Amino acid sequence: MGSFKKAKLLATASVAGAMGLFGFSYEVKATPATWTSGSGSLATGANWSTGSVPTGDIATFNAGNISLSPSADGGVSFLGVNIANSSAGNYNFVRGGAGAQSLTLGASGLTATGNGTIDLFFSTVIINAAQDWNIDTDVTVTQNNVNGLTLNNQLTKTGNGTLFFVKNSSGAGGISVSAGTLTGNNTASAVWGTGNVSIGSGGTVEGRNVVLSFPTLNVYSGGTVLGTGTGGGIGSAITLGSIGGNVSFNTGASSTDVLATTSSINGGDSTNIINIGGSGTVILKGGSVSSNAFDGTWVVPTGTFLKVYDVAGLGNRTSVGFASVKLAGGTLLAAGINSTGAVNFGSSVTVTGNSTILIDRQTSAGVAISNANARAFGTLTIGTNTLNVGNSTLVTAASSSGASMVSFTSATLLGNATFNVFGGNATTYGLSLGVVNDGGNGYSVTKTGTGLLNFSAVPTYTGATTVTGGMLNYGSFASTQSTSRYVLANDAIIQFNNGLNNTWIVNKPVSGNGTLVANGASRATLSAAGGTLSPGSGNTVGTLTLIGGGSLLNAVAWGGNSSVATTINIDVVGTGANDYDKLVLNATSFVGDFGNTTLNINTAGLNHDDFIDGHLLTIVSTVGANFNFATLGYTFTNVVDSSGWNDKVYYLNGSIAIALPEPSSAAGLGLLALGALRRRRRRRLIT
Questions:
Q1: CA 474, CA 494: separation in Å to the nearest integer?
Q2: By CB neighbour count within 10 A (0-12 exposed, 13-18 middle, 19+ buried), where does 666 fall?
Q3: 3-state class of 336 per DSSP?
Q4: How much helix, strand and coil, in percent to the nearest 5, is found in the chain?
Q5: Are 146 and 167 in contact (CB under 8 A)?
Q6: Whole-number Å distance between alpha carbons of 617 and 599
Q7: β-bridge partners, 332
Q8: Which of 92-96, 122-126, 376-380 has the lowest mean pLDDT?
Q9: ∠ Cα 474 479 481 (to 5°)
């Protein structure tokens, strides 16, 4: 797309002559004329140090205010203007009446040094030759002309100061900003005329509480687009002028500042980066699908906000694909065009810092949102970071008639990832991931928050799965899981939910406090190979609940049935009657479904006496008489503890009693006598 070029044009008055036998030519800069009057007409020679108007030369103004007198002579024309403001106050060209003079500037343009504000209040300033306006760091030059600038040729803004436009301009000469800031603050769109505007490295174009429009805004590497106030923005098409360059879309320091783009963003290539900055919100309202659409990366750092309305707002280049997003600690607000249905943004997202994705909307809170408010993206890549997912303040339970879901086609773990789904419950707020993989590196997944994390495809990551809030749902597929273990806390839920009548093989250890649910038409089976239930954590007691769902009797179950044999392994700890693990079985579909199941209770590290006297494990049915194994004649056998005892376990109305084995030797008789003394203490059912 070319490179940003700035031509600095210098002009001097010259005198050439021949001097005798030593003929030579030389150039002499004209002595600038300095304004010496506080008021009056610029076209009056007596007001200048040279006694004549510096028409075609450089005019110098040193300090103070100038009150311009009305003039009928059509104004003045200078080669350039130097303004040196030595005070921190304003240097004003004050309009003296309805006929205040016009100013035409030649190739030397304008140089402003010192500090403070310089207010140009001519009837108009005419740019007939390409020129630089060099404005010092601490200087603001305000274009406050009655008729703005007449841009018949290109104006290049240099210097680190600010050029501030408050009136509409005319002409198609265009403006280039190679340094400092060019600011527009006008409700009309022609504040900078009808030409293109270009931003070079170190330059900034600001829309201050107004959406500025011109044919094209060209942003070159190192350039910045800035929005301040509640209505700042760019209404023109934006073109990136450098291949592989980095540009910035910023807001001001206030959280209410806005930079809104309402047209397409084009140019560059996949190596281009647009950095988001400031404390406000950058809003992408435009967008298009085209062969030149932006296909680089949006970078959203900590404390910044990027809001996307249009499905192609991030960029969608034909035959190439969507632009990507790098969340480096910031917030992405996925609004969609009308926020009333599912929107597929398509972009891949990489999370490199603790970041947030919010489902958002254009309309105000209280207006209903329809069902299927999904915000779909491409792939997700995340390291050892937290991705927070929820709804914005404009999407509330009162204004939404359906669940809100952010989804990704797949996820790659580059570290131990945490997914925090917040602000609602597991039926109204969610994050859905396709295949979650870690390349065999053992990375873990932690689910926090009250909402839902859904796996829509078989996950292949090999680290632990921890759920400390809300629900982790396994979708309509059946698989042996690759995760190393499951950990629950705070009564969280892991749900195995499919309608395919398949069997889930939960062949990994499950520990903590929470619930495992086999829902729909699925059957969840605890495998003997590693599928151990450990209520609590370590030596801390806890409660695990198994729930079988579905409407058909025996259609859903944990464990085996008459045709499917299985083993349920349970690790237990406990220290007394008021401190013990609990296993809760909750579903009518458990009735008659454990007839071919072996219960293996592991009491490693505990004495056999502790196992008898203490309430180490209580198995409870929440469905009362429907879960009466004694009545149904079911006996669980092969209960083995670490000391080699082989006891039988009887279930009576959901409670457990443990019987001592019969003695087989003289030593055994002694144990029987000891056991008889203890049985009185053990006769009650453990509940």
A1: 8
A2: exposed
A3: coil
A4: 5, 45, 50
A5: yes
A6: 12
A7: 306, 357
A8: 92-96
A9: 80
Using a 10 angstrom Cβ sphere, with 0-12 exposed, 13-18 middle and 19 or more buried, the burial of residue 479 is middle
Q: Which of 456, 418, 571, 583 is nearest to 514 (CA)?
A: 583
**First-to-final CA distance of the chain:** 78
Q: Which amino acid is at 525?
A: T
Asked whether the beta carbons of 241 and 215 are under 8 A apart, the reply is: no
Residue with tokens 């960029």: 315
556/338: higher pLDDT: 338
Residue 355 to residues 386, 418, 461: CA-CA distances in angstroms? 6, 11, 22
The alpha-carbon radius of gyration of the chain (Å, integer) is 39
- Do you know the residue count of the chain? 687
pLDDT tens across 320-357, in order?
Answer: 889 999 999 999 998 866 545 678 888 999 999 999 99
CA angle 497, 396, 298 (to 5 degrees): 85
Helix (H, G, I), strand (E, B) or coil at 361: coil
Indicate the helix (H) or strand (E) that contains 672: helix 666-682
**C-alpha torsion sign, points 289, 293, 297, 302:** negative
Please give the full DSSP string across 575-641, using - where no structure is assigned.
EETTEEEEEEEE-GGGTT--TTEEEEEE-TTS-HHHHHHS--EEEEETTGGGG-HHHHT--EEEEE-
Token pair, residue 459, equals: 């996950």
**CA 4 – CA 11 distance, rounded (Å):** 23
Strand partners of residue 580: 574
